[in-house]
Every structure is written in structure tokens, then in C-alpha cells.
Write a structure and sequence with these properties.
By secondary structure, the chain is mainly β. The protein has one domain: Methylamine Dehydrogenase, Chain H, CATH 2.130.10.10. 0% of the residues lie in helices and 37% in strands. The protein has a five-stranded mixed sheet with strand order 2-4-5-6-7, with no helix packed on it. Strand 5 and strand 6 form a beta hairpin. The N terminus is likely disordered.
């Protein structure tokens, strides 16, 4: 199906009501679309000089986009249906770099320790240098990767349409473990207290050991679980 042009309007000075843009508090933080590994965003700091007047500072037209990730290095990272991952100057919208994958990029990026982690419909999880866009590594799964990675303690957690949840070494891309569900894993993982929480199209929400991938429990819902879990106050 042909998807039309979508205009990505990213306000360079972020406003209070931008739920899908994560901003790291320091350059070394792991930044996801939900701001942290538990997917709670109640402490997302507002960018310097933020405003609530809704003035558009710039916009960039890209052939289809997914929710972007912004960092305090003043760079916005975003994937596109044109197969590219883009880094844009947060103040001007000028392209800093782009990296071309083999298919649509429907995953949202996570930035941790100077590396951008993102999935692609070409079945790969990519680790890209945040400053230059150079590929650090890629890991090939068995199907499309719409899930957005979460990085905790040097491990990248991500789901795939091949029914698996993966834990990958953040430095090398080597597989640490995988857990096989019975459906597509489009959900993005949340991690808290050593447990990975994630949904699957097999109708289950899973709690997996972050260290080993062993199932701790599962809960059967009445339909697909594409939604990404959030952990707060001991409630999943």
C-alpha cells in the first residue's frame, strides 16, 4: 500500500504537551519515546527556552515518520517510510545525517551512550553512531522490527514480528537471549527491577527475567497486545 507524504512538524523549542518526544536530562541518559525504561514520562524535562505559545519554529517534510526522539545534544532522531533514519538539528531542522536501511523504519529510536538504537522492516535492529550516523552493528531477526528498543545496563531489549523478544549486547549486537511468543511482538518493552514487560499478538502480556529471558508470568488479554507497557508504583 502506498503511503503518502506526512509532514513532520517538530517544534525546535519543545512545548509542554509533546507526549511522543523524549528529552534526555543528560547526554549519557538512555532516551526513549517514553523517557525511561519504565515508560513513565512524569519527569521529562522541558528543553531550554521552552514556550507554551505554540509558535512553529521549523518543520521538515519526510515521506512518512514515526515518533521522534530528541536529546540535549540538540539533535532530533527519527525514522521514515523512505527507509532512512534521520538526525536533524533541533534548532533549525537541518539534516545532520541520514542512514539508509533496507525497508520502512517504523520503530522509534532510543539513544544511549552516544548510540542510536532502532529497528527496521528489513528485519534488522541497528546501532548507529549518534554523531555521525555510521553503523556500529546490526542484528538480523526473522521478520520486521516495529518495536522500539529499550536499553538498560548495557542490554538492548526489543521485539520482532518473528514472535521473539530479544536481549542484545548494546556494544556488540551479540544475542544474550531470546524468548519466543506465539505472535508478532510489536509492543515495546518496559524494564523495571530486573523484569522485562512486553505484549504480544498472541494476546499475552509477558514478564521476563531481564538477565535470562525466563518467563516470570504471563497474563492473557482478550486480543492483540500491541500497546507498550508502563510500570509505575508497582503496577504493570
Amino acid at each position: 500500500m502506498k503511503k503518502g507524504l506526512i509532514c513532520l512538524s517538530l517544534v525546535a523549542i519543545l512545548m509542554f504537551c509533546v507526549p511522543n518526544v523524549a528529552v534526555a536530562s543528560t547526554s549519557n541518559d538512555s532516551t526513549t519515546i517514553h523517557n525511561n525504561a519504565r515508560h513513565t514520562s512524569d519527569h521529562i524535562p522541558i528543553a531550554r527556552g521552552s514556550t507554551s505559545n505554540g509558535i512553529l519554529h521549523w518543520n521538515s517534510v519526510i515521506n512518512g515518520t514515526v515518533p521522534p526522539t530528541a536529546t540535549n545534544s540538540r539533535i532530533v532522531y527519527v525514522g521514515s517510510w523512505d527507509h532512512n533514519v534521520y538526525a536533524l538539528n533541533a534548532d533549525t531542522g537541518a539534516k545532520v545525517w541520514n542512514y539508509t536501511t533496507g525497508a520502512w523504519v517504523e520503530s522509534s529510536p532510543t539513544v544511549a551512550n552516544g548510540i542510536v538504537y532502532i529497528g527496521s522492516d528489513d528485519h534488522n535492529v541497528y546501532a548507529l553512531d549518534a554523531a555521525t550516523g555510521a553503523k556500529v552493528w546490526n542484528y538480523t531477526t526473522g521478520d520486521m522490527v516495529h518495536s522500539s528498543p529499550t536499553v538498560v545496563n548495557g542490554i538492548v531489549y526489543v521485539g520482532s514480528w518473528d514472535h521473539n523478544v530479544y536481549a542484545l549486547n548494546a556494544d556488540t549486537g551479540a544475542k544474550v537471549w531470546n524468548y519466543t511468543t506465539r505472535g508478532f511482538v510489536i509492543s515495546s518493552p518496559a524494564i523495571d527491577n530486573g523484569i522485562v514487560y512486553i505484549g504480544s499478538d498472541d494476546h499475552n502480556v509477558y514478564a521476563l527475567s531481564a538477565n535470562t529471558g525466563t518467563k516470570v508470568w504471563s497474563y492473557k488479554a482478550g486480543g492483540f497486545v500491541n500497546s507498550s507497557p508502563t510500570v509505575a508504583n508497582g503496577i504493570r
